[in-house]
Amino acid sequence: MGEAVSLSLSRRHEVARALREFLPARAVLFDEEDTRPYECDGLTAYRQLPMVVALPETEEQVRRTLQVCSSMNVPVVPRGAGTGLSGGALPLGDGVLLSMAKFMRVLRVDARARIAVVQPGVRNAAISEVAAPHGLYYAPDPSSQIACTIGGNVAENSGGVHCLKYGLTLHNVLRVRGLTIDGEPLELGSEAPDAPGLDLLALAVGSEGMLFVVTEVTVKLLPKPQCARVIMASFDDVEKAGSAVAAIVAAGIIPAGLEMMDRPATRAVEQFVGAGYDLDAAAILLCESDGTPAEVEDEIARMEAVLTGAGAVRLAVSRDEAERLRFWSGRKAAFPAMGRISPDYYCMDGTIPRKRLAEVLHFIAELEKKYGLRCPNVFHAGDGNLHPLILFDANNPDELHRTEQFAAEVLEKCVAVGGTITGEHGVGVEKINQMCTQFRPDELELFHAVKRAFDPRGLLNPGKAVPTLARCAEYGRMHVHRGALQHPELARF
Amino acid sequence: MTLSALQEEIRAAAARAAPLRLRGGGSKDFYGNEPRGELLDVRRYAGIVDYEPSELVLTARGGTALAEVEQALAEHGQCLPFEPPHFGAATLGGCIAAGLSGPRRAAAGALRDFVLGVKLIDGRGRLLEFGGRVMKNVAGYDVSRLVAGSLGTLGFIAEASVKVLPRPSAERTLAFEMAEAPALDAMNRWAGEPLPVSASAWHEGTLYVRLSGSAAAVQAAAPRLGGSELADTVAFWRSLREQTHAFFSGEAPLWRIAVPSATAPLELGGAQLLEWNGGLRWLRSSLSAQEIRAAAERAGGHATLFRARDKSAGAFTPLDPVRLRLHRELKRAFDPAGILNPGRMYAQF
After folding, report:
1. Quick check: B203 and B280 in contact, CB under 8 A?
2. How far is A411 from chain B (nearest CA, A)?
């Protein structure tokens, strides 16, 4: 033990010394008090101190950092703002945590071409701020948008509440520049449409920092809609609210935002922000329309008719911008509000075909009883992305354990009804076991082969997002034991 | 035709190291480099598997006729938003493998943006599924979108799920007499304003702009833009999409030059037709591939030799060494024997 510690200490000093050859001392951290802030991302249940933190400021410094790590066989975990919810930026105890936080410059805003070229550490909301004087904005709006960075958004393919109409990060990024683990420059996508060859950009977006390190991003800017209004519709039954969502889409309407919250969720946020939600409703829908005033007026009227036809018991339409923002404030504050009513909460991110909503919500209600834990629901209803929030107390080990089991069952249900374990938060370390449920060994094997194509020695963010087959075998057996299998003492492969 | 029979055929070809030429309707035989290998006709693996209009998702087998897919969507007032060209008896699988988008691309997005999932038979005959039938899915690498536009080099697209959208309820096309530079200006300016522009084109002194959306939106926007109204909006855009417009007839090589949309007029000999706010510039020209590709590259773009008798210059702009290596490694991951449409995209794999 003592030998191992001193070995790892000397390794740490060796790596730090190599990095300090081209990085200033303040950009290479290894004392515990300095590395502590990097021990976790937004998924705080998992913590690990990195061996060394590197904070380069130029692409050249990133290149040399990667070359050092590659030549010394040190794994690298890239990190943006650390707001991710799946542990994608969880450090490795024997690795370098590569913070891109200093890459904060907006390099170019070209209003005529409707693009912005930015460094990866630029905050999501900051892009829309610099585009605003030109009447433009960057569409994807994850709820962490005031803090999260575009580099992290690219790594996770982040969404938001407007992606049914405006798409995910994937649909709004034109080009990324980056470096391979060996420090070779790589440009994927293009400001011109349809870059030649295979669509490596599509592969890179959402790759959770496992293929290469992003150093520059070109995003698409969209004209800001002239106006927007939102309807708050109340339902006395969650199932009816789900059917109303289908009815809106079936009527040929693609709302700018279409969100659902159940009563436990509205009650929790109402105490917190006072959004004016109908607390008697079993569920509320928020349906937004944006565009020209004529378009919005027309669409709001059509949505009101559909919602009423689908059994809405009460409709409230925002009268002005202040009221529209107030209606949204509750939805955007849903996660922190849970933090007020419970010591901890665990946010899930499964996506399901919308028609299976009622079934999945009933399933979750049954699990609340089974595990003795509460679980309010907020739901990107338009695109089928569920965020059930299990409330628990992490200081109670049994509650934490029950929460994990609860979450695993929900995610597996999402796969069983034809959906996915993660719609926008990523797999990271959090959902890695459930990947075994969603994918077969051949598919996982192909993911590993894709990774090897970019990173043959597996040094970039290893151990995240794609489980090894051995891990799945272990996890699978665990499941067999939990089920009602005969002769559990017999090994099964 | 069953999937296991197809898997078996691919496995057998891999064992013999015999190249296979995957082919649907053959409508895009002209596209890319010359196809070679034993023909594997996949049209018999056909049929719409699932289509629920309120989910905005359609799932169909690769051999399904694209026309059948569009017909099914039209019956429910929906469409493929990327408006793909058919160029004949196209199949859905071939459409996705080719990755070509039509006039609406600049406004709605590219084909790959709407691919949600694929069932794929890779070069080892393994049946693999990626993505799914839901809008948001970030589990694993996004292989289904990598497959879009891969020209059958990574696998046979046995089944695909695509996101669909409602058809716009109103549509009209405005025409303006305008030289190329001011037309580029206008297209890019309007694209930056909240207007329901769904397609644009310029050719021989006329700018065409299509407005699509709710009747209210189209009605409000049209007088703001001015111009004169084109009588048959559907036929005009179809003639561009299917290349039946007079510009596309004749023998001169047809180049598809992609550049950042606001790029100034490209001074190249030969007739041009512009689409996508200027992001796509069709060129009829006998200039050398070198000259044309250099001009595209100077503008930050690339040039594809789309239709030509002689494609010895290579259909696509060559890749730099790092990207070429990645392409080869990926090809090896999907098709280690290198039997699937070899050379169709690049001679090297």
Report:
1. no
2. 12
Residue B236 to residue B239: CA distance in whole angstroms: 5
DSSP string, A154-187: HHHT---TTHHHH--HHHHEEEEEEE-TT--EEE
Per-residue pLDDT tens over the stretch A293-334: 888 999 999 999 999 999 999 999 999 999 999 999 999 888
Which of B82, B119, B137, B159 would you mutate first to test chain A, the one with the most A CBs within 10 A?
B137
Amino acid A414 reads C
Q: Which residue of B has its CA nearest to A446?
A: B333
pLDDT at residue A490 greater than cutoff 60? no
Whole-Å CA distances, A360 to A31, A241, A265, B90 = 47, 14, 17, 38
Alpha carbon A333 to its chain centroid, in Å, reads 16
Chain A closest CA to B228's CA: distance in Å?
Answer: 22
Distance from chain centroid for Cα A111 = 29
- Are the C-beta atoms of A405 and A67 separated by less than 8 Å? no
ipTM higher than threshold 0.90: yes
Give the torsion sign (CA, B65, B69, B72, B74).
Answer: negative
Q: Are A455 and A181 in contact (CB under 8 A)?
A: yes
pLDDT per residue as tens digits for the range A192-216: 999 999 999 999 999 999 999 999 9
The answer to whether the beta carbons of residues A342 and A375 sit under 8 Å apart is: no
Name the A residues in 214-253 with CB < 8 Å from any B CB: 221, 223-226, 246-247, 249-250, 252-253
What's the whole-model pTM score? 0.95
Angle between helical axes of A238-250 and A357-371 (0-180°, round to 10): 150
Across the interface, whether the CB atoms of A355 and B262 are under 8 A apart is answered: no
A164 near B CB under 8 A: yes
> Looking at residue A105, what DSSP letter applies?
-
Q: What is the mean pLDDT of each run of 10 residues along chain B (349 residues)?
A: 93 98 96 96 95 95 98 97 98 98 97 98 97 94 98 98 96 98 98 96 98 92 95 97 97 97 94 98 97 98 97 97 98 98 97
Interface membership of A181 toward B (CB under 8 Å): no
Number of helices (H), then strands (E), belonging to chain A: the values are: 18, 18
Q: Which residues of A touch B326 (CB under 8 A)?
A: 186, 200, 453-454
